[in-house]
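Board work, copied verbatim: MIR domain-containing protein
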Amino acid sequence: TYLSTIVSGRANQYVTCGSVLKLMNVGYKIRLHSHDVKYGTGSGQQSVTGTELQEDVNSHWLIKSETGKHCNRGQAIKCGDVIRLQHLATLKNLHSHHFSSPLSGNQEVSAYGDEKGEGDTGDHWMVVCDGQFWERDEGVMFKHLDTDAYLSATGRTYGRPINGQTEIVGVMSMSSNHVHWQAMEGLFIHPTDFNPKQQHNMQDHSEL
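↓ predict structure ↓
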């Protein structure tokens, strides 16, 4: 079966549905971040940035299935799967759309959704990777389904009130190393951990 195939051997190397993790931009070594600060331009939605701080609690993202679908907790995410990344602290989803980003004029990336974490198709990202599954130690890309843009960072930094944080954008080219992201610190749910009677049975993973 699918589950036994994953469990045999390499299960713990995969990123799975229901896991909470931090994502590091491979090129800039910053972690994907959000907070209750809205953009002053563009959509005016909640801003998404990059931070060099490893321990910031506002950099945790929950992996969910696309809107209207369901993925089993602990199920390995396949290359080509469409997911949502929900910001744990504010419950909004990583989002993009045809607005210009504040600093570089690329495509804006924001956090969007209601208090239940429900937004729209602008929250859908395809996991682009080389093998069969998203492996925790590899750099993967996130392609925005509505616009075909890739999640990226520019290296430009903001002033107040998010001083020193880096601009996160969508770009149309995947030729840059700045479109690769790696799973870092987090709580990873494994297929072998999943028990419907113990829904909070997570394995802590905090290696750098």
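The first strand starts at residue 20 and ends at 25.
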